[in-house]
Amino acid sequence: MECATADCDREATVELHIPWDENRYVCMGHARVQSRKDGIVADPLETADDDLPDGASNHG
Question: Which sequence spans correspond to the domains of the chain?
């Protein structure tokens, strides 16, 4: 699945839970920026285990 951010063709690695909008699946770079807003929670996808540091996804 591709990043939901316009003009980005990277693989989505994170689901952003956004209280005032639809959840979005985005790449790590966009998740890092967008998750800084109050109320947004970044949840790593299970498929992203290989792209994240050990233990970062909490998926074991």
Answer: 14-49
3-state secondary structure of 28: helix
Q: With 70 as the cut, is the pLDDT of residue 58 above it?
A: no
Residues 6 or more apart whose CB falls under 8 angstroms from that of 48 comprise 13, 14, 28, 57
Question: Can you tell me the distance from the alpha carbon of 41 to that of 54, in angstroms, rounded to the nearest whole number?
Answer: 20
3-state secondary structure of 24: strand
Give pTM, 2 decimals.
0.79
- Do the Cβ atoms of 5 and 40 come closer than 8 Å? no
Residue 46, classed as helix, strand or coil, is helix
The closest alpha carbon to 15, from 35, 45, 60, 39, belongs to: 45
